[in-house]
Amino acid sequence: MKFGHAVWLGYLFLCLSGPLLWAGGSGLNVVVVVNGTSTNSLQVGNYYCERRQVPPNNVLRIYWTNSGPATSWATSDMTNVLLAPLASMLTSRQLTNQIDYLVLSMDIPYRVIDQFGTNKDSTTSALFYGFKTNFGSPYPNGAYPGCASDPPGSSNSYAGSEMIFRQSAPGNVTWSNIMATMITSSGDFTMSDTVIDQGVNSDATFPSQTVFLEKSDDPARNVRFPTFDNAIFNARLSGYFPMQQTNNDYLGNLGFTHGLQSGYYFSYLALTAFVPGAMGDNLTSASGYLFDDGSGQLHATDFLAAGASGSYGTVDEPCNYLQKFPSPQIYFYQSRGFSLAECYYMGVTNPYQGILVGEALAAPFAAPGQGTWNSLPPYALLSGTTNLSYHFSASGAMRPISQADLFVDGVWFQTLTNIPPGTNNNLTITINGVQTNYTVPAGATLASIGTALTARLNANSYSNLTKAAAWAHGDRIELQYTITNNLGSHVPISVASTIGTGSAFTTFLAASGSSFLDTTAFGTHYLEVDPGSIAPAIGSWLLLTITKTNGAVVKVGSTNSGSFNTIPLLVSNLLNMVSSNPQLTGPDGCNAQDFIDYGNFGYNPAPASFNLLPQSPGWAASFMQATLTGSSPLYFSVLPAGAHAVQDNVPDLRSRAHLYLTQGVTNLSGSFSLNTANLPNGYHDLTVVAYEGSHVRTQTRATQTVRIQNGALAATLSVLSGASNTVMGLPLQFSVTANTSSISKIELFGTGGSLGSVTGQSNATFTVSSSLMGLGLHPFYAVVTGNTGAQYRTATTWIRLVTIPPFVEPPFSLTMTSPPPRLSWPATAGRSYDILSSPNATQPLQFRLSIIPSNSPALWIETNGSPENFYKVRTSN
């Protein structure tokens, strides 16, 4: 009956395939899904694309009509409206092996319900690894089917792996293997925009504010606290920010924080604010009921409103299974540089009921390097086969660069270089003065090296001398010092990497410090008393025998004299006796915590449980022995029986260190031949992406626009209606003209892909509704295909669609030529402007008329036969 017991949380108290390993993440690896029936969804999606530089072809426009807030849809609706179009899009736009992330932009249902109405998954988890069906309810009458133990296939292979996502992705269909998040709020697009800003603005900021882990007095919801010490220990080793356990049930006064994990029914965040990149969540049933819960529970969107960049909550009653909620390890993963979506999906073992909200790419501890093209100026003219070169420098010695890829117009084109761990490089580890060497074999990966090194460190011939044990976690190895008669801080660790007999030095090993780090955790031992079929009889007793580490024995008992006629009352009295015993209050004593009366959860007769902790932290203090016994004949049982050390949590008590593996070079200079004949004539964005040589895979990008010309085909794109700033409601109109009549097709592209095409014409006019595009910044370009198959891609024109207000017109200058007077100025297309004039400087300017220009610059020609000498133009609205 430990913490694995299912407890209904809801209202209990109220009533890639192959070598294409992207990871790291940038706008190139994201699909943004917008709801074409929602102006808010379009606006938020457009803003996300602008901030994260998402290519226009990476936007999928779906159509879903909500009668109210977008909460739930059927599996068939999700399949028809989202999954099928997504699979088609990824294939047709050649993005299948490029996309690791998906962002759902407002007004898209977050809960998926099967045809029977009993199985409810989140939309983000269904995208991540498919829809999962529950076993069935463990409760009478089929209540709360979400409380079922986890269904087959719901375990997430990526969880805890610290691997590159594509190497351990759990999905098995075209549209899965995507780390999906939702940016949403209840009709308030400004909050969604703020979430985006908080995420983007967090990148590489390395915040130092505290992460709080709340151990509340709510036993149904505080069940994560046994996992806190492990995460706190790892965060101490990373050294970037403190993590602190708090017993504060009400979270409204924590100040400015980097993160928060709580578990409480009623709470609030009034005076708690989050730094950019922060993650926070509340372990309770309705935390993922984003817009359809009136219970007063703290929801995932409440964390976003307080400034967090990401949060998580369950969309159906989950019970308090730990594997359904984020581990506090997410903060350690983040300290390594992983993105927000990577952290959450590595931190939830069975996420099928959980909705992930926030900015997927936020990475406050990622450290990109610097990169540039060599001798490639903007709009350089290229033809035939040309040689191009680039240079990247890593952000540090332990963040080398291992791979560089070329993207053309936002689509992966080719891998330019891929630097593996160097064959025959030598890695040396010295622990406690004992050295071992490892030679990197051919074909090794960081993960295989980590596994092999761990086996080497755990071999009896070595570990018997070092007294250390090792565990592999992807590209990281965790070390634990296994004896108690010496502080780990006195045990030195050193590592070295050399080229060995290899031809290239590209494998590196680093340690978290020069010695082990000692723990700050307290030992713990769980004890439980289960009832028989009747209440404890008068005279029944419990006896707790404590043998201190110095051999002293202390006995504390609790007897039912008539007042303690239930197991919880008998146990509660025992705990009071422990806390008041003067022999146990000193540094070598112990205390009892975490009392649970299971009668509060409907058990009758009710068991009770508690944890026993030493008064002092560390492994040595945990060797005190505890024995709990009961009277005979027993009407109850004590678990576990016999004497036990107070060290259920041995891994948290041992001194610890980390080793990190990387591959690559700190300075990467490369060149390659590009056959421009394989690309359309015209304008293209060439982007080289360099990847950090760890499983974090932080990206560094260098982009340049070039012009390609092979043959005579050319075309122009002109804006007939619209300008760099255009008021929503004005139809956008474009003219595309080729330089030859031998044209088979002209196609216009913008946000979301193709916007229209014509065939058999050398020129075409396209009209695009501004409501189709939505508020925000949009690129437009055309691709012209000749009868021979040759193509030309026009230069990209950017148009920002705005509303007035809140759009503020920038100051503009007025130009006048004559005769007759001609006024021109940079205008917002679709906005009204007033023309004022006066014959001389001494007379006031008089209103003449208002005009609404359809493009920019705006032009007005004086029609008065007696022209004025002074003119002024102002906005009308």
Keywords:
35% strand, alpha+beta, 14 helices, Immunoglobulin-like, single chain, 4-stranded parallel sheet, globular, 15% helix, 11-stranded mixed sheet, disordered N terminus
Can you put this structure into words, describing what you see?
It is a single chain. Helices cover 15% and strands 35% of the residues. It folds into six domains: 27-358, no CATH class; 370-419 and 665-708, Immunoglobulin-like (Sandwich); 426-519 and 655-663, no CATH class; 525-648, Alpha-Beta Plaits, CATH 3.30.70; 715-802, Sandwich (Immunoglobulin-like), CATH 2.60.40; 815-875. The radius of gyration is 32 Å and the shape is globular. It is α+β, with helices and mostly antiparallel strands and 877 residues long. A hairpin with a 6-residue loop joins strand 35 and strand 36. The strands form 13 sheets. Strands 15, 17, 18, 35, 36, 38, 40, 41, 43, 44 and 45 form an eleven-stranded mixed β-sheet that branches. The relative contact order is 0.10. The chain starts with 29 loop residues before the first strand and ends with a strand.
